[in-house]
Amino acid sequence: MKKILAINYSQTGQLDEILDRFLIPFGEVERVKVQVKRPFGFPWSSERFFDAMPESVLEEPVDLEPMTFANEEYDLIILGYQPWFLSPSIPTTSLLKNEKFKQIIKGKPVVTVIGARNMWLNAQDSVKTMLREAGATLVGNIPLIDRSNNLTSVVSILHWMLDGKKTKPLGIFPKPGVSDEDIQYSDRFGVLVKESMDKGDYVDLQSQILSLNRISVPTNILFIEQRAKKLFQIWANIIKKKGTTAAKRKRWLVGFKYYLIIALFVVSPIVLTIFNLLLRPFTLSSIKRKKEYYCGVN
């Protein structure tokens, strides 16, 4: 019998729900849920939410609760994670930099399952790097996202993160998070992964995953992510350097908070309009290459 390890951290419970459905075709699977020694809690306060930004972006690990694995060797690792601030969540980074887990995944095929608002490209790039450094082989990636408009989904997700309610804010904004339909559909991805595992051949797995036509990279999201990560890194480094006391760190985090609000709701729509009207026609081939890259596993 194949030995399968499914491991993840889920703050809201959504990723647990996604993996529960995704894993149905596999039958018996070992599940391990990552816990940090200093829990982030849910719902988040606004202050705690933004306080996680610098360490998320700079990919600094924290201490995890001890993990117990039933086996020393696995035939397949399924890693579920969420992006935080265009980076892997702090618990995910901590897991991928954990020496015990790095030994578990060394030389093993790994499938990543992402539960995200809509921006996962930079986070997956970081995960690819950490998997490669650990000697693992990424054979499949399945990002499940909130398909709502970018700006309205910001309102919805903040409602969920700060109030703890996965409901429509004010009754007019879309329900936050990955849709129930996409969660229910995720077992179809599980079927493809299991078939590849049974054959011991993952060469065409990602192509088969993409053939279901449920995964795409919107051009506007690609454009935003390519630029936003560098700006986030600048802010993260400034906050770490200048925030030498709790009071100073708080002031810089408040500055980042208002920068992010202005960037999302004022600057971003203007820049995207200019890009789509004037520049996009001249970058079609580049956009295509980048989408193929991010949708792949190499």
Give keywords:
transmembrane, alpha/beta, 12% strand, transmembrane helix, 298 residues, 2 domains, 7 strands, globular, Rossmann fold, five-stranded parallel beta sheet
Give a concise summary.
The chain is α/β, with parallel strands linked by helices. It has helices at 14-22, 46-51, 53-57, 90-96, 99-105, 121-133, 150-163, 180-199, 205-211, 219-242, 246-279, 284-295; strands at 4-8, 30-33, 76-81, 83-84, 87-88, 109-116, 137-145. The strands form 2 sheets. The protein has a 5-stranded parallel beta sheet with strand order 2-1-3-6-7, with helices on both faces. A two-stranded antiparallel sheet has the order 4-5.
Largest sheet: number of strands, sense, barrel closure: 5 strands, parallel
Beta-strand percent range: 5-15%
H/I helix tally:
12
Number of domains: 2
Strand sequence of the main sheet, in spatial order? 2-1-3-6-7
Kindly, what is the distance between the CA atoms of the first and last residues, rounded to a whole number of angstroms? 29 Å
Q: What do we call the CATH topology of the largest domain?
A: Rossmann fold
What is the architecture of the largest domain at the second tier of CATH? 3-Layer(aba) Sandwich
CATH class of the largest domain: Alpha Beta
Which value, in Å, is the CA radius of gyration? 19 Å
General form? globular
Secondary-structure content class = alpha/beta
Order of helices and strands: EHEHHEEEHHEHEHHHHHH
- Regions with pLDDT < 50 over 5+ consecutive residues? none
Counting DSSP E segments of at least 2 residues, the number of strands comes to: 7
Q: Give the overall average pLDDT.
A: 94
Helical percent range?
Answer: 40-55%
